[in-house]
Write a structure and sequence with these properties.
Elements lengths: L7 E4 L2 E4 L4 E7 L14 H13 L4 E5 L12 H18 L4 E4 L3 H10 L3 E4 L8 H8 L3 E4 L17 H18 L7 E4 L8 H9 L2 H4 L6 E3 L4 H7 L7 H13 L4 E4 L2 H15 L3
Parallel strand pairs: 3-4, 3-10, 4-5, 5-6, 6-7, 7-8, 9-10
Antiparallel strand pairs: 1-2
Helix pairs in contact: 1-2, 2-3, 3-4, 9-10
């Protein structure tokens, strides 16, 4: 496993310390996200939820205005901007932690950077036209997420020759594309995209082999919280997947993940504290 070359990310002037695993709190400003759609759709509710997650130990808040659940419908640029920009502006002023934008659209990336966002989280890994140049111009770190297909089609018979090696090659190519566009490796995070065009077995293989992605020398982010493959394994509804999600998060950290993206911040922070206590023992 190749050592990560840096442990602190400068996220628009706010620092994200990755010397130990950190928790990213999910803030969906959408009416249709698979787990919490509608809960934080209005700015006041979103801002209150973000405050709570920081109090619970979140080191970064990930703000999204478009659902990426299987079958989700695209949201227009104007509507996505209306949803996320006022919230990002408010949170960037008020909270001590970085604010991340979860979006695929270059126009939204630029506006969010201007509004105070400190990181871009893109499920298309900057493959949309104009996304590479938009992020290059912001100077912000970016998380490249792997997804096979798109939210409308990604869970319709996903297939790979070798899921781990196929995605490893994908990241190697995207890293080169970023560097060619002026986005240095020091700004990159990678996320293998659990649930984004993967079968249950694919997800399990990725979790077991997560260290393979650490070989790229970049921080690895994972989003496992309440995912459908956990529900299938444990036969649990979305609201009943806390235990399986925490178990998966701990396994991910033991296999090299540095950022855990989750709905369940307090519980995940506690679980990772126990892992750190154990790892610190001689």
């Amino acid at each position: 496993m190749e050592a990560i070359t840096r442990t602190v990310l400068d996220c628009g002037g706010k620092l994200l310390d990755l010397s130990s695993p950190q928790v990213m709190g999910i803030l969906n400003i959408t009416p249709d996200s698979f787990s919490d759609g509608g809960d934080c759709f209005f700015p006041e509710a979103a801002i209150a939820r973000a405050r709570t997650m920081v109090e619970e130990g979140a080191a970064i808040i990930d703000v999204g205005g478009e659902s990426s659940r299987p079958g989700a419908v695209d949201v227009g640029v104007a509507e996505e901007l209306r949803r996320v920009i006022p919230v990002i502006e408010a949170l960037a002023r008020e909270l001590p932690v970085p604010i991340s934008l979860d979006s695929t659209k270059p126009e939204v990336m630029r506006a969010a950077a201007h509004a105070g966002a400190g990181l871009i989280n893109d499920i298309l890994a900057l493959q949309r036209h104009g996304a590479l140049s938009a992020v290059a111009q912001t100077s912000l770190p970016v998380c490249l997420v792997h997804m096979q297909g798109n939210p409308q089609t990604m869970q319709v018979h996903p297939r790979y020759d070798d899921v781990v090696e196929d995605i490893h090659r994908f990241f190697a190519a995207r890293i080169l594309a970023c560097e060619a566009a002026g986005i240095s490796r020091e700004r990159l995070i990678i996320d293998p995209g659990f649930g984004f065009g993967k079968s249950v077995v694919d997800n399990l293989r990725l979790l077991k082999a997560l260290g393979r992605f650490c070989d790229l020398g970049l921080p690895v982010l994972v989003g496992l919280s309440r995912k459908s493959f956990l529900g299938k394994l444990a036969n649990r509804a979305v609201s009943e997947r806390l235990v399986s999600g925490l178990t998966a998060a701990v396994l991910a950290v033991l296999n090299g993940a540095r950022i855990i993206r989750t709905h369940d911040v307090a519980e995940t922070v506690e679980a990772l504290q126990v892992v750190e206590y154990v790892q610190c023992q001689g």
